[in-house]
Predict the 3D structure of the following.
Amino acid sequence: MTSLQILTVGGAVRDQLLGRPVNDRDWVVVGATPEQMQALGYQPVGRDFPVFLHPETHEEYALARTERKSGRGYRGFVVQASPDVTLEEDLARRDLTINAMAAPAEWPGSGTLSDPYGGQRDLEARVLRHVTEAFREDPVRILRVARFAARFADFSVAPETLALMREMVAAGEANDLVAERVWQELARGLMEAAPERMFEVLRDCGALEVLLPELARLWGVPQRAEYHPEVDTGVHVMMVLQQAARMNAPLGVRYACLVHDLGKGTTAAEVLPRHIGHEQRSARLAWKIGERLRVPGDCRDLADVVAREHGNIHRSQDLNAAALMRLFERCDAIRQPRRFALALMACECDARGRLGLEEREYPQRARLQAALDQALSVSTAEVAAQAMAQGRTGPAIGAAVAHARTQAIAHWLASDPG
Ligand SMILES: Nc1ccn([C@@H]2O[C@H](COP(=O)(O)OP(=O)(O)OP(=O)(O)O)[C@@H](O)[C@H]2O)c(=O)n1
Ligand SMILES: [Mg+2]
Protein backbone atom coordinates (compact mmCIF):
# COMPACT_ATOMS: atom_id res chain seq x y z
CA MET A 1 0.00 0.00 0.00
CA THR A 2 1.21 3.48 -0.90
CA SER A 3 1.21 6.21 1.71
CA LEU A 4 -1.57 8.74 1.62
CA GLN A 5 -0.97 11.52 -0.90
CA ILE A 6 -3.24 14.39 -1.87
CA LEU A 7 -2.61 16.15 -5.19
CA THR A 8 -4.21 18.84 -7.34
CA VAL A 9 -5.24 17.30 -10.62
CA GLY A 10 -6.86 18.03 -13.97
CA GLY A 11 -8.16 21.42 -14.99
CA ALA A 12 -6.49 23.45 -12.25
CA VAL A 13 -3.00 22.20 -13.16
CA ARG A 14 -3.68 22.70 -16.85
CA ASP A 15 -5.02 26.22 -16.39
CA GLN A 16 -2.17 27.21 -14.10
CA LEU A 17 0.36 26.08 -16.71
CA LEU A 18 -1.54 28.03 -19.34
CA GLY A 19 -1.56 31.11 -17.12
CA ARG A 20 -5.35 31.09 -17.06
CA PRO A 21 -7.41 31.79 -13.94
CA VAL A 22 -8.12 28.71 -11.83
CA ASN A 23 -11.71 28.60 -10.65
CA ASP A 24 -12.31 25.23 -9.11
CA ARG A 25 -9.75 22.76 -7.96
CA ASP A 26 -10.08 19.00 -8.22
CA TRP A 27 -8.02 16.71 -6.01
CA VAL A 28 -6.91 13.13 -6.28
CA VAL A 29 -6.18 11.09 -3.18
CA VAL A 30 -3.77 8.16 -3.47
CA GLY A 31 -3.39 5.40 -0.89
CA ALA A 32 -6.52 6.04 1.13
CA THR A 33 -9.69 4.10 1.90
CA PRO A 34 -13.14 5.69 2.06
CA GLU A 35 -13.12 4.97 5.81
CA GLN A 36 -9.86 6.91 6.27
CA MET A 37 -11.28 9.84 4.34
CA GLN A 38 -14.36 9.95 6.50
CA ALA A 39 -12.21 9.69 9.63
CA LEU A 40 -10.34 12.78 8.38
CA GLY A 41 -13.64 14.66 8.18
CA TYR A 42 -14.26 14.49 4.42
CA GLN A 43 -17.88 14.02 3.43
CA PRO A 44 -18.79 11.32 0.93
CA VAL A 45 -20.69 12.69 -2.10
CA GLY A 46 -22.55 9.73 -3.43
CA ARG A 47 -22.72 6.02 -3.15
CA ASP A 48 -21.37 5.23 -6.63
CA PHE A 49 -18.30 7.42 -6.87
CA PRO A 50 -15.50 7.48 -4.33
CA VAL A 51 -15.64 11.24 -4.16
CA PHE A 52 -15.52 13.36 -1.00
CA LEU A 53 -15.98 17.00 -0.15
CA HIS A 54 -13.45 18.85 1.99
CA PRO A 55 -15.17 19.84 5.26
CA GLU A 56 -14.26 23.53 4.81
CA THR A 57 -13.42 24.32 1.17
CA HIS A 58 -16.02 21.87 -0.18
CA GLU A 59 -13.67 21.08 -3.05
CA GLU A 60 -13.84 17.61 -4.57
CA TYR A 61 -11.44 14.93 -3.44
CA ALA A 62 -11.61 11.73 -5.51
CA LEU A 63 -9.89 8.54 -4.50
CA ALA A 64 -7.48 7.30 -7.16
CA ARG A 65 -9.47 4.86 -9.21
CA THR A 66 -9.66 2.70 -12.27
CA GLU A 67 -12.88 2.43 -14.14
CA ARG A 68 -14.24 -0.43 -16.08
CA LYS A 69 -17.29 -0.42 -18.20
CA SER A 70 -20.17 -2.76 -17.59
CA GLY A 71 -22.67 -1.43 -20.07
CA ARG A 72 -23.13 1.09 -22.84
CA GLY A 73 -23.25 4.80 -22.41
CA TYR A 74 -22.91 7.16 -19.53
CA ARG A 75 -24.73 4.97 -17.02
CA GLY A 76 -22.60 1.92 -17.61
CA PHE A 77 -19.85 2.58 -15.11
CA VAL A 78 -18.45 0.44 -12.40
CA VAL A 79 -15.97 2.45 -10.40
CA GLN A 80 -13.08 0.71 -8.79
CA ALA A 81 -11.22 2.56 -6.14
CA SER A 82 -8.77 1.03 -3.77
CA PRO A 83 -5.77 2.25 -1.81
CA ASP A 84 -3.58 0.24 -4.20
CA VAL A 85 -4.46 2.27 -7.26
CA THR A 86 -1.42 4.37 -8.14
CA LEU A 87 -1.41 7.95 -9.35
CA GLU A 88 -0.30 6.79 -12.81
CA GLU A 89 -3.18 4.35 -13.02
CA ASP A 90 -5.60 7.07 -12.06
CA LEU A 91 -4.18 9.55 -14.58
CA ALA A 92 -4.25 6.88 -17.30
CA ARG A 93 -8.02 6.76 -17.26
CA ARG A 94 -8.55 10.48 -17.60
CA ASP A 95 -9.72 12.07 -20.82
CA LEU A 96 -6.92 14.21 -22.23
CA THR A 97 -3.18 14.41 -21.61
CA ILE A 98 -3.53 18.10 -20.73
CA ASN A 99 -6.04 17.06 -18.04
CA ALA A 100 -3.92 14.19 -16.78
CA MET A 101 -1.31 16.02 -14.76
CA ALA A 102 -1.08 16.18 -10.98
CA ALA A 103 0.76 18.62 -8.74
CA PRO A 104 1.49 18.97 -5.02
CA ALA A 105 -1.06 20.85 -2.94
CA GLU A 106 1.05 23.99 -2.61
CA TRP A 107 2.27 24.02 -6.19
CA PRO A 108 3.63 27.39 -7.33
CA GLY A 109 2.82 26.81 -11.04
CA SER A 110 6.20 25.44 -12.03
CA GLY A 111 8.53 22.70 -10.87
CA THR A 112 7.71 19.17 -9.76
CA LEU A 113 4.75 17.79 -11.56
CA SER A 114 3.42 14.30 -12.21
CA ASP A 115 3.01 14.20 -15.95
CA PRO A 116 3.43 10.60 -17.13
CA TYR A 117 1.48 11.06 -20.37
CA GLY A 118 3.03 14.16 -21.91
CA GLY A 119 0.51 16.76 -20.84
CA GLN A 120 3.05 19.60 -20.80
CA ARG A 121 4.34 18.61 -24.21
CA ASP A 122 0.78 18.66 -25.61
CA LEU A 123 0.03 21.98 -23.93
CA GLU A 124 3.03 23.47 -25.65
CA ALA A 125 2.12 21.85 -28.97
CA ARG A 126 -1.51 22.97 -28.48
CA VAL A 127 -2.92 19.48 -28.93
CA LEU A 128 -6.00 17.81 -27.44
CA ARG A 129 -4.90 14.18 -27.21
CA HIS A 130 -6.51 11.30 -25.36
CA VAL A 131 -4.43 9.60 -22.70
CA THR A 132 -5.18 5.93 -23.30
CA GLU A 133 -7.84 3.65 -24.75
CA ALA A 134 -9.72 4.21 -21.47
CA PHE A 135 -11.01 7.37 -23.18
CA ARG A 136 -13.68 5.12 -24.67
CA GLU A 137 -15.20 4.41 -21.31
CA ASP A 138 -17.06 7.69 -21.21
CA PRO A 139 -18.77 8.98 -24.36
CA VAL A 140 -19.38 12.36 -22.69
CA ARG A 141 -15.71 12.89 -23.47
CA ILE A 142 -16.59 13.33 -27.13
CA LEU A 143 -18.51 16.42 -26.09
CA ARG A 144 -15.78 17.49 -23.70
CA VAL A 145 -13.13 17.43 -26.42
CA ALA A 146 -15.42 19.50 -28.63
CA ARG A 147 -15.99 21.93 -25.75
CA PHE A 148 -12.27 22.23 -25.03
CA ALA A 149 -11.71 22.97 -28.72
CA ALA A 150 -14.19 25.84 -28.35
CA ARG A 151 -12.38 27.11 -25.27
CA PHE A 152 -8.80 26.67 -26.46
CA ALA A 153 -9.32 27.95 -29.98
CA ASP A 154 -5.68 27.50 -30.99
CA PHE A 155 -5.61 23.80 -30.00
CA SER A 156 -6.18 21.05 -32.54
CA VAL A 157 -7.57 17.59 -31.90
CA ALA A 158 -4.85 14.94 -32.38
CA PRO A 159 -5.61 12.80 -35.45
CA GLU A 160 -5.56 9.61 -33.36
CA THR A 161 -8.02 11.13 -30.90
CA LEU A 162 -10.36 12.18 -33.68
CA ALA A 163 -10.09 8.68 -35.12
CA LEU A 164 -10.97 7.19 -31.74
CA MET A 165 -13.94 9.54 -31.40
CA ARG A 166 -15.14 8.50 -34.87
CA GLU A 167 -14.91 4.85 -33.87
CA MET A 168 -16.91 5.52 -30.73
CA VAL A 169 -19.62 7.31 -32.68
CA ALA A 170 -19.68 4.53 -35.28
CA ALA A 171 -20.06 2.01 -32.44
CA GLY A 172 -23.18 3.87 -31.30
CA GLU A 173 -21.60 5.39 -28.20
CA ALA A 174 -23.11 8.82 -28.86
CA ASN A 175 -26.64 7.40 -29.09
CA ASP A 176 -27.03 6.70 -25.41
CA LEU A 177 -25.84 9.98 -24.01
CA VAL A 178 -28.17 11.35 -21.37
CA ALA A 179 -30.02 14.45 -22.60
CA GLU A 180 -29.05 16.55 -19.57
CA ARG A 181 -25.35 15.82 -20.03
CA VAL A 182 -25.52 16.66 -23.72
CA TRP A 183 -27.22 19.96 -22.99
CA GLN A 184 -24.81 20.74 -20.16
CA GLU A 185 -21.79 20.27 -22.40
CA LEU A 186 -23.37 22.07 -25.37
CA ALA A 187 -24.35 24.99 -23.15
CA ARG A 188 -20.83 25.27 -21.78
CA GLY A 189 -19.31 25.02 -25.24
CA LEU A 190 -21.69 27.67 -26.56
CA MET A 191 -20.40 30.05 -23.89
CA GLU A 192 -16.74 29.58 -24.84
CA ALA A 193 -14.76 32.06 -26.94
CA ALA A 194 -14.99 30.04 -30.17
CA PRO A 195 -18.27 28.11 -29.93
CA GLU A 196 -18.21 27.25 -33.63
CA ARG A 197 -15.23 25.00 -33.01
CA MET A 198 -17.30 22.72 -30.83
CA PHE A 199 -19.60 22.02 -33.77
CA GLU A 200 -16.66 21.63 -36.12
CA VAL A 201 -15.22 18.88 -33.92
CA LEU A 202 -18.61 17.21 -33.39
CA ARG A 203 -19.15 17.26 -37.14
CA ASP A 204 -15.68 15.87 -37.86
CA CYS A 205 -16.25 12.84 -35.64
CA GLY A 206 -19.82 12.22 -36.75
CA ALA A 207 -21.42 13.02 -33.40
CA LEU A 208 -23.27 16.08 -34.67
CA GLU A 209 -25.28 13.89 -37.05
CA VAL A 210 -26.32 11.76 -34.07
CA LEU A 211 -26.93 14.51 -31.52
CA LEU A 212 -28.22 17.34 -33.68
CA PRO A 213 -29.12 15.94 -37.11
CA GLU A 214 -31.27 19.03 -37.75
CA LEU A 215 -28.12 21.15 -37.52
CA ALA A 216 -25.75 18.71 -39.28
CA ARG A 217 -28.03 18.80 -42.30
CA LEU A 218 -27.38 22.51 -42.91
CA TRP A 219 -23.92 22.02 -44.40
CA GLY A 220 -24.23 21.76 -48.16
CA VAL A 221 -27.54 23.67 -48.22
CA PRO A 222 -27.12 26.82 -50.37
CA GLN A 223 -28.62 30.24 -49.68
CA ARG A 224 -28.94 33.22 -52.04
CA ALA A 225 -25.53 34.79 -52.55
CA GLU A 226 -26.97 38.36 -52.61
CA TYR A 227 -27.86 38.03 -48.94
CA HIS A 228 -25.41 35.32 -48.01
CA PRO A 229 -22.02 35.67 -49.72
CA GLU A 230 -20.87 32.61 -47.75
CA VAL A 231 -23.70 30.66 -49.48
CA ASP A 232 -23.54 27.54 -47.30
CA THR A 233 -26.11 27.50 -44.50
CA GLY A 234 -23.95 25.56 -42.04
CA VAL A 235 -21.12 28.03 -42.57
CA HIS A 236 -23.55 30.89 -42.02
CA VAL A 237 -24.83 29.51 -38.72
CA MET A 238 -21.27 29.11 -37.47
CA MET A 239 -20.51 32.72 -38.46
CA VAL A 240 -23.60 33.83 -36.55
CA LEU A 241 -22.30 32.02 -33.48
CA GLN A 242 -18.95 33.77 -33.88
CA GLN A 243 -20.74 37.10 -33.85
CA ALA A 244 -22.65 36.08 -30.72
CA ALA A 245 -19.38 35.21 -28.98
CA ARG A 246 -17.84 38.45 -30.13
CA MET A 247 -20.77 40.36 -28.59
CA ASN A 248 -20.41 38.38 -25.37
CA ALA A 249 -24.00 37.30 -25.83
CA PRO A 250 -25.65 35.27 -23.05
CA LEU A 251 -26.49 31.59 -23.50
CA GLY A 252 -30.07 32.12 -24.68
CA VAL A 253 -28.91 34.32 -27.54
CA ARG A 254 -26.23 31.84 -28.56
CA TYR A 255 -28.70 28.98 -28.51
CA ALA A 256 -31.21 31.02 -30.52
CA CYS A 257 -28.47 31.75 -33.06
CA LEU A 258 -27.67 28.04 -33.30
CA VAL A 259 -31.22 26.99 -34.18
CA HIS A 260 -32.64 30.05 -35.99
CA ASP A 261 -32.16 28.67 -39.51
CA LEU A 262 -32.79 24.94 -38.99
CA GLY A 263 -35.77 25.18 -41.35
CA LYS A 264 -33.38 25.80 -44.25
CA GLY A 265 -32.36 22.17 -43.96
CA THR A 266 -35.82 21.01 -45.00
CA THR A 267 -36.37 23.39 -47.92
CA ALA A 268 -37.56 21.48 -51.01
CA ALA A 269 -34.72 21.04 -53.53
CA GLU A 270 -36.58 22.78 -56.37
CA VAL A 271 -36.98 25.98 -54.31
CA LEU A 272 -33.28 26.35 -53.46
CA PRO A 273 -31.43 28.60 -52.93
CA ARG A 274 -34.54 30.39 -51.69
CA HIS A 275 -35.98 29.43 -48.33
CA ILE A 276 -39.52 30.66 -48.35
CA GLY A 277 -41.24 30.03 -45.03
CA HIS A 278 -38.15 28.56 -43.39
CA GLU A 279 -38.87 30.48 -40.19
CA GLN A 280 -41.86 28.34 -39.22
CA ARG A 281 -39.94 25.17 -40.02
CA SER A 282 -37.01 26.42 -37.91
CA ALA A 283 -39.36 27.01 -34.99
CA ARG A 284 -40.76 23.49 -35.24
CA LEU A 285 -37.33 21.87 -35.44
CA ALA A 286 -36.05 24.01 -32.56
CA TRP A 287 -39.03 22.86 -30.53
CA LYS A 288 -38.10 19.24 -31.22
CA ILE A 289 -34.52 19.80 -30.08
CA GLY A 290 -35.75 21.63 -27.00
CA GLU A 291 -37.86 18.65 -26.01
CA ARG A 292 -35.23 16.07 -26.83
CA LEU A 293 -32.36 17.76 -24.98
CA ARG A 294 -34.54 19.24 -22.20
CA VAL A 295 -33.31 22.70 -23.01
CA PRO A 296 -34.26 25.19 -20.26
CA GLY A 297 -37.47 27.09 -20.90
CA ASP A 298 -35.94 30.55 -21.24
CA CYS A 299 -33.54 29.36 -23.95
CA ARG A 300 -36.35 27.57 -25.78
CA ASP A 301 -38.72 30.54 -25.67
CA LEU A 302 -36.12 32.98 -26.92
CA ALA A 303 -35.10 30.56 -29.68
CA ASP A 304 -38.74 30.25 -30.69
CA VAL A 305 -39.20 34.02 -31.04
CA VAL A 306 -35.96 34.38 -33.01
CA ALA A 307 -36.73 31.42 -35.29
CA ARG A 308 -40.23 32.70 -36.11
CA GLU A 309 -39.54 36.40 -36.37
CA HIS A 310 -35.94 36.96 -37.51
CA GLY A 311 -36.99 37.58 -41.11
CA ASN A 312 -39.65 40.07 -40.05
CA ILE A 313 -37.21 41.82 -37.73
CA HIS A 314 -34.63 42.14 -40.53
CA ARG A 315 -37.34 43.63 -42.76
CA SER A 316 -38.79 45.90 -40.07
CA GLN A 317 -37.25 49.18 -41.23
CA ASP A 318 -40.34 50.30 -43.19
CA LEU A 319 -43.02 49.00 -40.85
CA ASN A 320 -45.64 51.50 -39.73
CA ALA A 321 -46.89 51.81 -36.15
CA ALA A 322 -49.66 49.23 -36.50
CA ALA A 323 -47.32 46.69 -38.06
CA LEU A 324 -44.71 47.33 -35.36
CA MET A 325 -47.36 46.72 -32.70
CA ARG A 326 -48.32 43.45 -34.37
CA LEU A 327 -44.66 42.40 -34.37
CA PHE A 328 -44.42 43.24 -30.66
CA GLU A 329 -47.56 41.25 -29.96
CA ARG A 330 -46.30 38.19 -31.86
CA CYS A 331 -43.08 38.41 -29.83
CA ASP A 332 -44.95 39.10 -26.59
CA ALA A 333 -42.54 42.03 -26.35
CA ILE A 334 -44.79 44.20 -24.20
CA ARG A 335 -44.84 41.65 -21.43
CA GLN A 336 -41.30 40.39 -22.04
CA PRO A 337 -39.22 43.37 -23.11
CA ARG A 338 -35.96 41.86 -21.90
CA ARG A 339 -36.50 38.75 -23.97
CA PHE A 340 -37.29 40.92 -26.97
CA ALA A 341 -34.03 42.84 -26.49
CA LEU A 342 -32.17 39.51 -26.55
CA ALA A 343 -34.04 38.48 -29.69
CA LEU A 344 -32.84 41.71 -31.33
CA MET A 345 -29.29 40.88 -30.31
CA ALA A 346 -29.60 37.45 -31.93
CA CYS A 347 -30.95 39.09 -35.09
CA GLU A 348 -27.97 41.41 -35.20
CA CYS A 349 -25.68 38.37 -34.95
CA ASP A 350 -27.63 36.81 -37.82
CA ALA A 351 -27.26 39.92 -39.96
CA ARG A 352 -23.50 40.11 -39.33
CA GLY A 353 -22.79 36.41 -39.49
CA ARG A 354 -22.32 36.65 -43.24
CA LEU A 355 -19.15 36.70 -45.27
CA GLY A 356 -17.85 40.24 -45.69
CA LEU A 357 -20.77 41.75 -43.74
CA GLU A 358 -19.33 41.26 -40.27
CA GLU A 359 -19.05 45.00 -39.64
CA ARG A 360 -22.34 46.13 -41.13
CA GLU A 361 -24.71 48.40 -39.25
CA TYR A 362 -27.91 46.89 -37.94
CA PRO A 363 -30.22 49.87 -37.34
CA GLN A 364 -33.22 47.57 -36.93
CA ARG A 365 -32.11 46.78 -33.40
CA ALA A 366 -32.04 50.34 -32.06
CA ARG A 367 -35.17 51.30 -33.97
CA LEU A 368 -37.26 48.42 -32.67
CA GLN A 369 -35.91 48.93 -29.20
CA ALA A 370 -36.90 52.61 -29.31
CA ALA A 371 -40.34 51.81 -30.76
CA LEU A 372 -40.94 49.29 -28.00
CA ASP A 373 -39.89 51.85 -25.39
CA GLN A 374 -42.58 54.15 -26.80
CA ALA A 375 -45.20 51.43 -26.56
CA LEU A 376 -44.12 50.66 -23.00
CA SER A 377 -44.25 54.32 -21.98
CA VAL A 378 -48.05 54.35 -22.28
CA SER A 379 -49.72 54.35 -18.89
CA THR A 380 -51.98 51.32 -18.96
CA ALA A 381 -53.87 52.41 -15.84
CA GLU A 382 -54.73 55.81 -17.26
CA VAL A 383 -55.89 54.51 -20.63
CA ALA A 384 -57.91 51.75 -18.99
CA ALA A 385 -59.57 54.24 -16.61
CA GLN A 386 -60.52 56.47 -19.51
CA ALA A 387 -61.92 53.54 -21.49
CA MET A 388 -64.02 52.46 -18.52
CA ALA A 389 -65.31 56.01 -18.03
CA GLN A 390 -66.53 55.75 -21.62
CA GLY A 391 -68.44 52.61 -20.69
CA ARG A 392 -66.09 50.08 -22.24
CA THR A 393 -65.55 46.68 -20.67
CA GLY A 394 -63.48 43.51 -21.05
CA PRO A 395 -61.54 43.09 -24.29
CA ALA A 396 -62.49 46.60 -25.39
CA ILE A 397 -60.29 47.96 -22.63
CA GLY A 398 -57.38 45.88 -23.85
CA ALA A 399 -58.02 47.15 -27.36
CA ALA A 400 -57.95 50.73 -26.10
CA VAL A 401 -54.58 50.14 -24.45
CA ALA A 402 -53.17 48.55 -27.62
CA HIS A 403 -54.51 51.48 -29.62
CA ALA A 404 -52.84 53.97 -27.29
CA ARG A 405 -49.55 52.11 -27.67
CA THR A 406 -49.84 52.17 -31.44
CA GLN A 407 -50.55 55.91 -31.24
CA ALA A 408 -47.45 56.44 -29.14
CA ILE A 409 -45.34 54.61 -31.71
CA ALA A 410 -46.98 56.59 -34.52
CA HIS A 411 -46.17 59.90 -32.81
CA TRP A 412 -42.60 58.89 -32.36
CA LEU A 413 -42.34 57.79 -36.00
CA ALA A 414 -43.79 61.13 -37.13
CA SER A 415 -41.21 63.01 -35.10
CA ASP A 416 -38.85 61.03 -37.22
CA PRO A 417 -36.13 59.33 -35.34
CA GLY A 418 -34.41 58.33 -38.59
N1 LIG B 1 -15.59 12.77 -18.45
C1 LIG B 1 -14.52 13.13 -17.74
C2 LIG B 1 -14.63 14.19 -16.81
C3 LIG B 1 -13.50 14.57 -16.09
N2 LIG B 1 -12.33 13.92 -16.29
C4 LIG B 1 -11.14 14.26 -15.48
O1 LIG B 1 -11.53 14.99 -14.32
C5 LIG B 1 -10.91 16.28 -14.28
C6 LIG B 1 -11.84 17.30 -13.69
O2 LIG B 1 -13.06 17.35 -14.43
P1 LIG B 1 -13.80 18.70 -14.73
O3 LIG B 1 -13.79 19.60 -13.56
O4 LIG B 1 -15.12 18.34 -15.33
O5 LIG B 1 -12.95 19.32 -15.94
P2 LIG B 1 -11.72 20.31 -15.93
O6 LIG B 1 -10.65 19.67 -16.76
O7 LIG B 1 -11.38 20.72 -14.56
O8 LIG B 1 -12.24 21.52 -16.79
P3 LIG B 1 -13.12 22.76 -16.36
O9 LIG B 1 -12.19 23.92 -16.48
O10 LIG B 1 -14.21 22.79 -17.40
O11 LIG B 1 -13.62 22.50 -14.97
C7 LIG B 1 -10.52 16.54 -15.73
O12 LIG B 1 -9.46 17.44 -15.83
C8 LIG B 1 -10.14 15.14 -16.19
O13 LIG B 1 -8.87 14.80 -15.71
C9 LIG B 1 -12.25 12.88 -17.21
O14 LIG B 1 -11.19 12.31 -17.39
N3 LIG B 1 -13.35 12.51 -17.92
MG1 LIG C 1 -12.65 21.29 -12.95
Summary: The longest helix spans residues 395-414. The pocket of magnesium ion (ligand 2) is lined by residues 10-11, 24, 26 (CB under 6 Å). Residues 70-76 have pLDDT under 50 and may be disordered. The beta strands are 5-9, 26-30, 43-44, 51-53, 60-63, 65-69, 77-81, 102-104, 127-128, 156-157.
